[in-house]
Amino acid sequence: MGLFGFFSKEKKETLDKGLEKTKDSFFGKLSRAIVGKTTIDEDVLDELEDILVSSDVGVETTVKVIKRIEERVARDKYASTAELDSILREEIAALLTENKSVDIRDSFETEHLPKPFVMMVVGVNGVGKTTTIGKLAHQFHQRGHKVVLGAADTFRAAAVDQLKLWGQRVNVPVIDHGMNTDPSAVAYDAIKKGVESNADVIIIDTAGRLHTKVNLMNELSKIKRVMQKILPDAPHEVLLVLDGSTGQNAVIQAREFTKVTDITALAITKLDGTAKGGVVIGISDEFKIPVKYIGVGEKMDDLQVFDRAEFVDSLFKKIG
């Protein structure tokens, strides 16, 4: 059975289209690099290394990929440039497989999750954090799950207002205390409301500023402690939202956030507007944290569950 209709034809087309800029840029450079060459030699691998780095795969991950290809070329003496894309495809798929601690197949189904399932969402301002929460709420709600949102990013009035608008739009309640209030008090009330109303999912927005690491760490720790007064094992997931279009900047943000709190899952947004989609591969490889969602368009359902096989398939489509 399919992923609750996830990889319906429409979803797959959206994914293909969302990764088009990355694919065109990457394979345009790759075909220029191997023109007139028949074997995968040192020059071709040097060119490939440059292409992977410029596609925001990241230096360390690129080195791993090149090393894997070198080993295969040494083993399969006959490897030609015509096979390079399929070799590359297989090695990137293998890398993503190794870097996923779980195979996320049913991220909007809650039967196997604690009830209520509490997600704390973190990320700097401007990455699409509040929009991601709205889209998550919509998709959980669409599947018949009861959702409560907590507007604990009280540092910006716009964040509270935006989340309230999303709540109205997707028809789920939003707990808020307005701006410049105690974020942990909002989180407490959202958990309380979720428990009392028998909610399936509670999603808590948090402040998106890396003003100082110590302040951020203290704030997130306090929110967690207060949640645990009601639900001792909350939050069940800490989701870091990153803007894929910022490339290596997203990697830097992931490094900063993983230093201050335990991140358990990643959402990488805005992949449709950029040629930097390779950043998904690099982030997955560096942090060994499951990429759970990717944003490949503006529509509510364009926040998709990340499926590594489908991602690689879309990235390499119409090649070879």
Q: Could you name the key traits of this structure?
A:
8 strands; 49% helix; alpha/beta; disordered N terminus; 320 residues; 12 helices
Question: Oligomeric form of this entry?
Answer: single chain
DSSP strand count = 8
- Mean pLDDT metric: 88
Instruction: List the secondary-structure elements in sequence, H or E.
Output: HHHHHEHEHEHEHEHEHEEH
Q: Tell me the strand order in the biggest sheet.
A: 3-2-4-1-5-6-7-8
Number of helical stretches of at least 4 residues: 12
User: Biggest sheet, open or closed, and with what strands and sense?
Assistant: 8 strands, mixed
Distance between the termini: 29 Å
Question: Helix proportion of residues, in percent?
Answer: 40-55%
The fraction of residues assigned to DSSP E strands is 5-15%
**Low-pLDDT regions:** 1-6
Structural class: alpha/beta
Shape: elongated
Rg: 21 Å
General description of the model:
This protein is an alpha/beta fold and 320 residues long. The chain is 49% helix and 12% strand. The protein contains twelve helices and eight strands. The chain has helices at residues 9-18, 20-34, 42-54, 59-75, 84-98, 129-142, 157-170, 183-196, 213-228, 248-260, 279-287, 308-315, and strands at residues 117-122, 147-152, 174-175, 201-206, 237-243, 265-269, 291-295, 303-305. An eight-stranded mixed β-sheet has the order 3-2-4-1-5-6-7-8, sandwiched between helices. β6, α11 (279-287) and β7 form a beta-alpha-beta unit. The longest helix is centred in the first third of the chain and has 17 residues, at 59-75. 46% of the residues are buried. It is an enzyme of class 3 (hydrolase). GTP binds at residues 123-130, 205-209, 269-272. This is Signal recognition particle receptor FtsY.
